[in-house]
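Help! Submission page says 'invalid entity' but I think these are all valid:
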Amino acid sequence: MKRIKTIETRDLKKSLKSGGCGECQTSCVANQEV
Amino acid sequence: MTHCYKLNGYNIVLDVFSGSVHSVDEVAYDAIEMYENTPKDVIKKTLLEKYAPELTADDVDELFGDIEELKENGKLFTEDIYEGRAFDLKNRSTVIKALCLHVAHTCNLNCEYCFASQGKYHGERALMTLEVGKRALDFLVENSGTRRNLEVDFFGGEPLMNWEVVKDIVRYGRELEKTHNKKFRFTLTTNGVLLDDDVIDFANKEMHNVVLSLDGRREIHDHLRKTVNGKGSYDTIVPKFQHFVEKRTNPIDPDAFTGYYMRGTFTHNNPDFTKDVFHMADLGFTELSMEPVVCKPDDPYALTEDDLPVVYEQYEILAKEMLKREKEGRGFTFYHYMIDLEGGPCIYKRISGCGSGTEYMAVTPWGELFPCHQFVGDEKYSLGNIYDGVKNKEIQQEFKLCNAYARKECGDCWAKLYCSGGCAANSYHATGSVTGVYEYGCKLFRKRMECAIMMKVAQQSEDQ
């Protein structure tokens, strides 16, 4: 029986590899070019 | 670090540093809560005592296997590997991405809770000239590096009290786009009193987004948002907002994004603020935001500790009602519940925060620069001006360090990669330091995130 269902999410650790492109907007964060 | 909570019939486990979210049954919930600090045989015994005979020893072993698999795959009990990088941010070079143009330090309303002191920011009435506005756009272009998309918000006070200058600044921006390979996204924040067809038509062509101030029910709105003559403003603005929102498409490019947000403030007078949110939805508005007032604790409308349980419950009521209305085909959005778990911001953005003082600045009517609109008028936070640039590098460094790891109090907070350290202005006004902690705001933020994540779990469960 499957007791744990994992919801689809972005892997934050993998996003480390991007280096942070800086193209995001300023953000007066949790929902802020996907 | 994990955060486990129960809401709306869901048992939710958030793995903080991977961003993973798990929806689990009661047995797994109990097991995960004990897993990292209790011997396995004790967990097994505890679970069997609580859930037998339906639960068997083999079931528990299988569950342990699933938990171990999630650990190995980096989706549960992951370690913090970001902290060291947070302080690299101090040395990063940044470009300016956005300006908040204070085109009018004056207002035609006299809202009691206004942080801008009825639009004048504790100073004299002032209007931005076209010359200052043009220089501000030049300053933004000059300091934006290779970045193409630039944002400019027309703010006040009430920006419609200087509307002709706003239009001329936009026209100047469109000229700059052609010569500098830039794209301006203009936005407008207004109380709506001076909205007319000229404003609506121009805004639909040129404003990427508009923020319309409405606090909800008439008696709530009119209690604090009065005209200078002391009259309520609800009856003046609501029909105008409805007309505006109805016409909110770009006549030149109907497919272009033309957004809006109804933006309300709730106070001690209406901790039952969902009634105001639903009121706005029932008026036909679908893009909604309702913010807790931030003010001095002794202000009569300040939220109190006694309001907290009421507000918590309201956030839950709101989330459940939104799920219900979505199913019924009459959904609406609530700003703080719009999180994107699948494609949301990368870890660098989550650590580094909103950008105030470094990537975002406010410009006064006379061209002085401040870290954001909430610092305008506080001279010790003056950064410089649009003619000579940023002179106060010390203050700018302070803001570069405002991030998810800047405050020791946030060390064990599960929500820090969602709030990125929170609002520097709120911290400053609550504690006297931009790296202080506005604990009341933190409590509300965490509750909102729990609700927002629960909604995502509910929606994904529904899809399956």
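Support: the input was valid. A stray whitespace character was the problem, and the output above is from the cleaned input. Chain A touches chain B through 31 residues (CB under 8 Å).
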